[in-house]
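Hey, can you fold this one?
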Amino acid sequence: MSAINTESIKETTLGIFQKNRTLVIVIVVFVVLLGWVYISSGIKVRNAETAVAEKQMDLVKKAEERQTEIVKQSLEIFCTPLAWAVRREMIDGNMAQVD
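Sure. Predicted structure:
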């Protein structure tokens, strides 16, 4: 029987990595850089989403404050003539009109 020559198998497999050492290094560096770009872009997207959410909350708060101010002004504009009309009718003794 013939014996398997393990020395030649080790040399051929080792030889492939030694012959293509720069290619392997370039591929590893490329994969690391690709991973870094992917992670950094994910972080940037998350930061942008957080900034947008904060800005949206700020705009909602400003809109609610503005709405409150508008309602307050509307009530002041509406209530003054109503109070004067009720006062005039009360002075005239028209309690049925006031009711």
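The chain has a mean pLDDT of 84. Let me know if you want another pass with a different chain boundary.
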